[in-house]
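Tutorial, part two.
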Amino acid sequence: MGGSLAEAGVTLLEYRNKSGAEAELLGDAEILRTALPAGKVKLILDDRIDLIDRIGFDGVHVDAGDATPAEARRLLGPERIVGTFGGSEALLPGILSEPADYFSVGPVFPTRTKQTTKAPIGMDGVRRLRDEAGAGSVLVAVGGITLSTAAEALAAGASMVAIAGAIFRNAEPADEFRRWIVELG
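Running the prediction step on this input gives:
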C-alpha cells in the first residue's frame, strides 16, 4: 500500500501507534520507509523521539504528556520536522513561541481515529485560531476531516488538513487520495 500512496502523491505521513512495543514500531517503520522512500515522502513518528534516528524518519509529532517541542527540537536538530498540538478552543498559551514546524488544531469535527475529550471546534474554531495565530504559522486542521469539508477547512484558514479515516477506511486508499488531489486541486 505504501508504494501506491507515494505514487498517488502522498508527501507526508504520520505513523501513530500508541500501544505498540518497540519491536513492532521498528518493524512497521522499516516497512513504511521502504515503501515510502526518503526524498519522496516525509515520515513523521508520533511521540517517540528516541527512535527517529534509528528508523530514518523525517520528524516527530509531540503532544501534552510527551516531550515538549523545544526538547524534540534540541534532540533532533533543525533539519527534522517537529509538530505539536496547538489548541482547540484557543491556542495553548505560548505555543507559537515553541520551535515547531506545524501546529495541529481541533478536533474540527467528531473523530473515531483519535480518542479525545475535546469538543469539536468546527469551521468557526479554525477561523478563530487562524486569526489568533496570524498568517505566518502552519496550522493543520485535524479530526473528522472529509473530502466534503477539507476545502472549507482550508478556506477557513488551515494551512493543510490531516486525514486518516477518510482515506484509510477506503478499500483503495491510494485511489481515494488521488480523488482528493483532483477535487481539491
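Residues 2-184 form a domain with the TIM Barrel fold (CATH 3.20.20.70). In part three we will examine how such features are distributed along the chain.
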